From TrEMBL:
SUPFAM superfamilies for the chain: GAF domain-like (SSF55781)
Protein name in UniProt: Diguanylate phosphodiesterase
Assigned protein family: Belongs to the CdaR family.
SMART domains assigned to the protein according to its UniProt record, in alphabetical order: GAF (SM00065)
Domain GAF: 82-233
Transmembrane segments: none
Organism of provenance: Micromonospora craterilacus
Highest rank taxon of the organism: Bacteria
């Protein structure tokens, strides 16, 4: 017997991992050689043992491959970076370890109540890759619902499953026949299904089912790990955001506390609105504008355009209604109020967005500004009362202790021995409502104190004592400014200059007579001094209640015909009379002054005689005519 006819040949076949069909070779050779039956039986037994060994080695190789695949999957999970990559690797390994044509995975959708295609490997059908399986429908829907593995060698013909048109169409388009599906489980909960499928009929062995279950378990772990990582990452992001918010809030609170302390210190040390605006902009940045109740600027820090008056009114009203600062475009407004009284507004143009704490800083600044404005008003009112009482003592009471008056004046910054003018403002300025009267007196107090003078209300008049020597200029300035403030004509009479406390009472009486004379002359809304009115002012300062009516009657009776003649004819009789009396009755000098011929002057005076009567040049009548001409000129002063 040759070597080739011995059992050793089967060992050689096992050693080179020969195919199963090659193990028939020694038996065929033995039969051809005509070996005895017992020898052929021995070889038959050796072949059987060799095939069993070969099958065992094959299973072990397969198991080794499966374990290697599971090990690689575990390695992927250990270094998990992207869930999709891990799931694709698991599906790919499932396909190759089971030798399947297609492998895929579906995940359960709790909101929609179905399971949807998540990952595929080996699939060629787009329709199949978009499948959604209702719970209990098809093989996958049944596995997802029950949590148990299912296998079929021929799905299209298997009536154990609930077939639907959509599922069958997708499976048919992919060409699948044999399908194995196992659940993805987390504890007792099924979260999806892992599949292996063939495009031809194939029974899946129990070892293959166990292998797919192992891969499914790893896939479930990967999904759960990814979920935990995502939740952890989200929690870390939330913690980071919360930490950032807390830090920002803490910073805002610290800024608010610092701003509060600084503004409190400003109030305690007597700071002003300018200091508050500077403090706010140092804390918040940007530019800030402080306005009073009339929209006038109190202070400004930084470059900021003053808003339109209508915008200010609307924004301040909204801020008062809401009780906090409001935003209009790029600007923030905070109303400055005291009770129901509007005192003004703070307008902020910030560099960036304002946090809530920053808005509180602006609102606190508005409150501090209101306190400062109220304090300033209280101080001004108190000082005004003191100043008013001093001026009242100077002009209305008999002087007893002039040294005491000088001392009181020095404490107020007033030098009674310097030249002063007295200005009397008429009832036309204070005959309005109480609030308007108070506004006039407040203005007069401020006007006088800023110039080192005094102001007081006196017998329906407002009296001002102002440093200087130009009584007429002071009267006109007071009349002009008060007319603008009250919106009505205001008349002001002045006298002076006067030096020393003893002369002030007489100066005020002269200013008061000048005021009366201006009214009699019909010059309401103007300002003038007694010196500018001359002796007419002294005369008219004593007229009775008839005032302007008496003057008008006197003018009409004395030179009325001449005035009317000039008005009708456009002549110059009044001017000729003034020139004639002004040069002492000289016709030649009057003609020279008027730049006309002497005959012209003679003819004009003859016309005057016709209008006034032949006795108009007699001494007593001539005096009345001259006085009437003076009054006429003062009633309508040039310029």
């Amino acid at each position: 017997m040759s070597v080739m006819s011995s059992p050793v040949e089967f060992l050689e076949l096992l050693a080179r991992e020969a195919a199963a069909v090659e193990f028939e070779g020694p038996l065929v050779a033995a039969r051809s050689a005509g070996l005895p039956a017992d020898r052929i039986a021995e070889l038959e037994q050796a072949k059987t043992v060799a095939l069993r060994v070969r099958a065992l080695l094959e299973r072990r190789r397969r198991r080794e491959s499966e374990l290697s695949g599971l090990y690689d999957t575990v390695s992927d999970l250990a270094g998990l970076r992207d869930l999709d990559d891990v799931l694709r690797a698991i599906v790919h390994r499932a396909r190759h370890l089971l030798g399947a044509d297609v492998a895929y995975m579906t995940l359960n959708d709790e909101e929609r109540g179905d399971t949807y295609m998540r990952v595929t490997d080996g699939s060629v059908s787009a329709r199949f890759q978009r499948l959604r399986l209702p719970m209990g429908a098809g093989l996958g829907g049944l596995v997802a619902q029950s949590g148990a593995p299912y296998v079929t060698a021929n799905y299209p013909e298997d009536d154990r499953f609930h077939h639907t048109r959509e599922i069958d169409a997708g499976v048919g388009e992919e060409g699948l026949v044999a399908i194995l599906g196992v659940p993805l489980r987390l504890g007792s909960t099924s979260i999806g299904v892992l599949y292996a499928a063939n495009r031809s009929a194939r029974p899946f062995a129990r070892e293959e089912v166990a292998l797919l279950l192992s891969l499914a378990a790893h896939a479930a772990v990967a999904i759960d790990t990814a979920r935990l990582l995502a939740e952890t990452r989200a929690a870390l992001e939330e913690l980071s955001a919360a930490n950032t918010t807390i830090r920002a809030h803490s910073s805002s609170v610290e800024r608010a506390a610092a701003a509060h302390d600084r503004m409190t210190a400003l109030v305690l040390r007597g700071g002003g609105v300018e200091d508050v605006t500077a403090a706010v902009t140092e804390v918040l940045g940007g530019a800030l504008l402080a306005l009073d109740a009339e929209g006038r600027r109190l202070a400004r820090v930084g470059e900021i355009d003053e808003p339109d008056r209508v915008d200010i009114v609307e924004a301040v009203a909204a801020s008062r209604t809401e009780g906090r600062s409001v935003r209009r475009g790029a600007l923030w407004y905070a109303a400055v109020v005291a009770g129901a009284e509007n005192l003004g507004a703070l307008v902020l143009h910030p560099e960036g967005e304002l946090a809530d704490a920053d808005q509180r800083i602006l609102e606190r600044a508005a409150l501090v500004t209101a306190l400062l404005l109220l304090f300033r008003r209280t101080v001004a009112e108190a000082e005004g009362r003191v100043r008013g009482e001093l001026l009242d003592d100077l002009i209305a009471r008999p002087l007893r202790d002039t040294d005491a008056l000088r001392s009181r004046a020095r404490r107020l910054g007033v030098d009674l021995d310097a030249p002063h003018v007295l200005v009397a403002v008429g009832e036309d300025a204070i005959a309005a409502t109480g609030s308007a009267r108070q506004r006039v007196l407040s203005w007069a107090t401020t006007y006088a104190s800023t110039r080192g003078g005094l102001a007081a209300a006196r017998d329906g008049r407002v009296a001002l004592m102002l440093p200087g020597q130009d009584a007429g200029g002071s009267a006109r300035a007071v009349a002009r400014d008060l007319s603008r403030i009250t919106g009505r004509p205001v008349t002001a009479g002045a006298s002076g200059p006067s030096i020393g406390p003893a002369s002030l009472a007489a100066a005020f009486r002269e200013a008061d007579r000048c005021l009366t004379a201006l009214g009699a002359l019909g010059r309401a809304g103007q300002g003038a001094s007694t010196a500018e009115l001359g002796f007419v002012g002294l005369l008219l300062g004593t007229v009775g209640d008839g005032g302007d009516a008496d003057v008008s009657r006197f003018l009409a009776a004395t030179v009325g015909p001449v005035i009317d003649y000039d008005a009708r004819r456009g002549t110059a009789l009044v001017r000729t009379l003034e020139a004639y009396f002004g040069v002492g009755g000289s016709l030649a000098r009057a003609a020279e002054q008027l730049h006309v011929h002497v005959n012209t002057v003679t003819q004009r005076l003859e016309r005057v005689g016709q209008l006034l009567g032949a006795d108009w040049q007699k001494p007593e009548r001539a005096l009345e005519v001259q006085l009437a001409l003076r009054l006429h000129r003062l009633r309508a002063p040039a310029g």
